[in-house]
Amino acid sequence: MQVHLIGGFDDASPQHANVGSRSESKAKLEGYSFPLCAKIVETLQKSKERFHVQTLHVLGQNTRWDSEGNAYPIFNGFLLETSTGSVIPTSFDRTSRCPDEIVRRLRLTACFEDPSWNSKLLETYDTQTDRFIIAPCSWTKRLLRFALKVQQLSDSEILLSCSTSPFAEGPDFVDNERRLCDYLIQHPDWRETFPMKQPRVFKRTAGGIWTRQ
Question: CA separation (Å) from 151 to 33, 63, 107, 141, 185?
Fold first, then answer.
């Protein structure tokens, strides 16, 4: 099995570490890319599969700097041609981000407060069955209060408060944050999203449409 690790960059940004909880502040100081890369490598180490790391283009290797010292990722996404093994830099819009995008974004944010996800990788796509299996994650009233606060901010304030790398964000970053906050406000109890602590499972139909099972 070939493994391609591409993405993540030097996104640590200490000047934004005064927002949110202590655990979130720690993430602001470290950035998100390094802890994520570390979790991926740890998961690979524990894997029983035999694999070969074909491509490794992460963190500093995937970082460019502008004249003012702001960091940007060189590649934001890529497409793998399975028949040839070719890796092609690619950008994805909202329509191509697969099912339950907001819940997956929320889980990424909320896992900082959920001890059941401590030091675990948020694996979602099951390659064996071609399904998205979104395991349950809880969130607290503190996160709801934060969402209510964020919705009162201007776009520029959201960009500066919610991103470790505000200069590197895509044009839909603020809109995505507002949609996430809207979902939190409309679903303050995580059990509404994950009844009986069951995962949200999506399977692709023959026509390529994701449907919830």
Answer: 26, 31, 19, 15, 10
Q: Which residues pair with 211 in a beta bridge?
A: 203
d(CA 118, CA 5): 22
| One-letter amino acid for residue 31 of the chain | G
> Among 194, 113, 101, 118, which Cα is nearest to 146's?
113
Which residue type, as a one-letter code, is found at position 101? E
* Number of helices and strands in the chain (H, E): 7, 10
Which pair of tokens denotes residue 151? 């919705």
As a whole number of Å, the end-to-end CA separation of the chain is 29
pLDDT per position in the chain (213 positions), as tens?
888 888 888 886 544 434 444 444 444 445 778 888 888 888 888 888 888 988 888 888 999 988 988 888 998 888 888 788 788 888 877 777 789 999 999 998 888 788 888 767 778 889 889 999 999 999 999 999 999 999 999 999 999 988 878 888 888 899 999 999 999 999 999 999 999 999 999 999 998 889 999
Dihedrals φ, ψ of 162, to 5°? -105, -5
- Residue showing tokens 């005064």: 18
Altogether, the residues listed in the chain come to a count of 213
Q: Please tell me the pTM assigned to this model.
A: 0.75
Both tokens of 176, joined, read 């995505």
